[in-house]
Amino acid sequence: MNMMLVKRQSWNIGIVLIATILGAWQISRLPVFGSYEARTFLLGILPIALLSMGQAIIIIGGGINLAIGAESVLINCLAARFMVGKSFIACVLLTLLFLLVSILVGALTGLIISKSKIADIIVTLATSFILIGLAMYIQPSPGGGMNLTLAQMISGKGSAFLPPLITLILPLVVIWLPLYRSRTGIAMFAIGSNKDSAFLSGVNVDFTRIKLYAVGGLFAGISGIALTAITLSGSPFASISNTATLNSVAGAVLGGVALSGGVGGLTGPALAALILYFIPTILLNYGIDPAYSQIITGALTILVVLAGGLIRNRGKKN
Amino acid sequence: MGKIKSLFSGRLTASMLSLWSILIVLFIITGLVDHYFFTIPSIGVTFQLAVPLGLLAAGQTICMLTGGIDLSIAMIATGAAFIVSIKSPSGLGMAIFYATLYCILIGAINGLAVGLLGMNPLIMTLGMNAVLIGVFTVGITTFLKGSSTMPDIIIKLSTASIIDPISWPLVLWILIGGFVLYLLKQTGLGRLIYAVGDNAKAARLAGIRVWKVQLTAYILCALLGGLAGLMIGGQSGAVAMSLADSLVLPSVAAVVIGGTSIMGGMGGYTGSIMGTLILTVLSYLLATLNSSEAVKQMIYGAIVLALAWTYSKLTEKS
């Protein structure tokens, strides 16, 4: 029984091992490591971890969302534009409203994909343009803000590392676990593995897909709100959304989600964000020009997906 | 057999008919909004502006027919333009030679990763794009320092008109487009491209070296992308990092609107040419509207989505 558990969790255990080694390496280079540094780590991974989780849900369901970065940027800009100078209560209400917006944006994307029967890639490539355009329209230049009390509740302050940790884990517990255990969760894995068989077994493929895109959108929304709380501004740039999308795919795949669909969970992607954060940080610490960070992100994504695919294939042959 | 053939061409005409009607409607609307549009020089300019997109779409068509996609095409184009502008003081021949080498190299890496290592083409080329953005961002301040203006001959080839509305770029497009059409429809390689895209497994069992076909497709795509980059560079006179950024979505959209399946094996370059013309008239129409970049981007994304949707519905019925 115990062996079964180890086998099922082997991917996550591997991720934790790599992350621990990289983390120890990074920590060993710091003069001190306390709760302040822990918070810095958490803030570094928070937006990407949330986005990777959202992407993971969609990829497990057999899709891919190239607009997930744009969704997050849109919510980031919405929040920064309308929350600046507002009271705490108003900001909380706006947060709920914008999370609802992110769910609707995701659901709409899923609806378009289901109704039009156009490939996910094409639809989300087009919606990414629409969403970035919308973000640029709402917040034409970087700026805006958020109520400080709320921002500190989400991202903490000084050495308070618990708030960002809660922001990271709460969606996992409140959204993912119930979803995973529900009928929709089973349907998600079913349509990801084989859409036609799932349909013939009585799964409502279209509605499941819409729900998955909506949940993915919600994660992107939380990521956007978290980003606003961390940076206290909104940045309407396509480059940010592209990098974020790329990272979300890398995080999902590194976290054990197969791009072909039907395999994986959300704990892996959350942990994988640690690795995606540590590798560039460590490289930059060794005196590598920050301008290379884009090269590192791109190359890392390719290597991660490549390695993930190779390991998975080997597992299948065994 | 004859029945199947007539059925096939029947469907082809129906879809071509719908593309023609979309183009004509858009053409008339644009003409009504802007009366200058119906003049001979203006039509010449519109054709000229269509050429880079037409070349990118040609590359994308070849890739997508094999079941792939190339999202690194923007940085392939930009990179080729950069290399030519920087190397041109030491001779145009050498400059073109280096740019060709660059295209073949990037295309080969993409093709080998997809063909031999089984990488997901979407992730591979997205990652490659990020890497190239990084390389050139670092490069223009270090090893690629130098002139950013295009050589005169390329400016002439990409803008000069022969007799309105026929221009040098249009002649070039007709030559290269004709070659691509011939390649896909009349040659063995063309057949292999369709076969691999339709069913890679069956193609391999039939003795086709699938990876070689994919490698060739990605190299061809990169070369066409590089040529498009030179055209864009020539039309804008100087080279910048964001040179071809705005053409990535259109290059995919033109192919999809033109009826080539993103799953591969179905479609052709004729449709992509129509898609290119439709999108070019559309961006002309958007340029005449007095609105911000944000709004334009939203409308563009929405219309691309609507066109792809309409087209897929139209062909579904017939």
Kindly summarize this structure in a few lines:
Chain A: It is a multi-pass membrane protein. Chain A has 318 residues and is mainly alpha-helical. Helices cover 79% and strands 0% of the residues of chain A.
Outline the structure in words.
Chain A is mainly α and 318 residues long. Chain A has one domain (43-307): ABC transporter involved in vitamin B12 uptake, BtuC (Orthogonal Bundle). Helix content of chain A is 79%, strand content 0%. Chain A has 14 helices and no strands. Chain A has helices at residues 2-8, 10-29, 35-60, 68-83, 88-116, 120-138, 148-155, 162-181, 183-193, 195-200, 205-231, 238-254, 267-285, 293-317. In chain A, helix 3 (35-60) runs antiparallel to helix 11 (205-231) and helix 3 crosses helix 13 (267-285). Chain A starts with a helix and ends with a helix. The model of chain A has no long low-confidence stretch (mean pLDDT 87). Chain B is an all-alpha fold and 318 residues long. Chain B has a domain at 42-243. Helix content of chain B is 76%, strand content 2%. Chain B is globular and about 55 Å long. At the A-B interface, helix 6, helix 12 and helix 14 of A face helix 5, helix 11 and helix 13 of B. Chain B: InterPro entries: ABC_transp_permease. Chain B: It is a multi-pass membrane protein. Chain B: The chain crosses the membrane at residues 12-30, 36-55, 62-84, 96-119, 126-146, 166-184, 215-232, 238-259, 266-286, 298-314.
Topology diagram in text:
The complex is a heterodimer of chains A (318) and B (318).
Chain A: H1 2-8, H2 10-29, H3 35-60, H4 68-83, H5 88-116, H6 120-138, H7 148-155, H8 162-181, H9 183-193, H10 195-200, H11 205-231, H12 238-254, H13 267-285, H14 293-317
Helix pairs in contact in A: 2-13, 3-8, 3-11, 3-12, 3-13, 4-5, 4-6, 4-11, 4-12, 5-11, 7-8, 7-11, 8-9, 9-11, 12-13, 12-14, 13-14
Chain B: H1 2-33, H2 40-65, H3 73-87, H4 92-115, H5 121-139, H6 152-159, E1 161-163, E2 166-167, H7 168-186, H8 188-198, H9 200-205, H10 210-236, H11 248-257, H12 269-288, H13 293-317
Antiparallel strand pairs in B: 1-2
Helix pairs in contact in B: 1-12, 2-7, 2-10, 2-11, 2-12, 3-4, 3-5, 3-10, 4-5, 4-10, 6-10, 7-8, 8-10, 11-12, 11-13, 12-13
